[in-house]
Amino acid sequence: MMENRGAPIPAEAFALDEEDPAFAGQALYSTKVLRVYDAVVVHASNALVWRCPARAIRALYAHHVSDAHLDVGPGTGYYVDRSGLPGEHPRLALLDANLDVLRFAAHRLRRFRPQLHAADVLKPLPLAPGTYGSIGLSYVLHCLPGDIDSKAVVFDNLKALLRPGGVLFGSTLVNAGCRHNRAARAMMRAYNGKGVFSNLDDDFEGLERALAQRFSRFEVHRRGSAALFAAMP
C-alpha cells in the first residue's frame, strides 16, 4: 500500500503481479488508452453500446458525492471532475491498482490535491475506517475476476471506510438476463474473452442480493446494459 498527496507516484511503488486474477481487468488502461478514454468509452460506448449515457452516471455523482469522497477506479477522473464536489475545501482520495490511472486522474483533479492510494480493492484496505462521506465505484465491478458473490468482498472492504450517514454508489455492466443490443453482445464477448471484463454471469439480481446482505438501505436502477446503485450502511 502506498499513499501520496499531490505528488507523483514512484513507478515501483505498487503493481499487480501478472499472475494475479485481477491483473487483466486493469492492465489495458495505459496512459495512451486514457487519453482517448473519455471520447471512446465515456461518451461513445456508454451512449451507443451500453445505452447508459454519461449524464446518467454524472447525475449519480452529483446526487451522492460528499465533501470527503473516495473514488475507486477513477479512470480519467471525468466523473469526479464534473461532480461538483461540495464544500470550500473538499477532501478527495483516489484508489486504483493501476499507477497510470492514478497519475492521469490525479493530474486532472490536481486542484483538489487528491490523496492517492495504490491498492487492490479486492484485498483488505489499510485506510482509516469511518473516513469518507461518499465512495464512488463506477465501472469497476465488471472488470474484477469472479462472480458477483465473490467480487462482492469489495463492498465489505469499502463499507468499513464510510462514516455514519455515508453512501457507497456506482455503476457496473451486467450480462446475464440483460437485453443487450448487437454491439453490446459483441463487446461483452470480446472483452470477456480477453479478460478485460469478467461479468458473463453478473446480473441485476445478484447485485441486489450482495447489497442487501451488507447494507440497511440500497437502490439499484437499470439503464441499458448497466446497473446504477447506491447503498447506505
TrEMBL record:
Which GO biological process annotations does it have?
methylation
Which ranges carry the Methyltransferase type domain?
70-169
Any one GO molecular-function label of the UniProt entry? S-adenosylmethionine-dependent methyltransferase activity
Q: Which residues form the signal peptide?
A: none
Task: Please indicate which superkingdom the organism of origin belongs to.
Answer: Bacteria
Please provide the record's keywords in A-Z order: Methyltransferase, Transferase
Q: What is this protein called?
A: Methyltransferase family protein
